[in-house]
Design brief:
Layout: E1 2-3, E2 7-11, E3 18-22, E4 33-41, E5 49-57
Antiparallel strand pairs: 1-2, 2-3, 4-5
């Protein structure tokens, strides 16, 4: 299952665990959070199910470094003692 082309959910090697895997980097300025519902179904009769809401909050790294007009700035301060 692919979520917006950025993540996928898969079963981990035949176990009962599932994994959420990033397919590409996430950018908080574009999308700051993802929400999904994971549903599990059994093979019984009657069929039973359970679901879980998973919220992914994207934090920001400093990928946009501040830019200044000048490489150096000088200023003076007075000491008021």
């Amino acid at each position: 299952m692919t979520l917006g082309g950025r993540m996928n959910v898969c079963q981990a090697g035949g176990s009962q665990d599932i994994r959420l895997r990033l397919l590409e980097g996430l950018d908080r300025e574009t999308t700051s959070r993802y929400s999904m519902v994971v549903m599990a179904l059994d093979g019984g009769q009657p069929q039973r199910s359970a679901s879980l809401v998973v919220n992914v909050v994207v934090t920001d790294s400093n990928d946009n470094v501040p830019q200044f007009d000048r490489s150096k700035t000088f200023f003076c301060c007075q000491n008021n003692n």
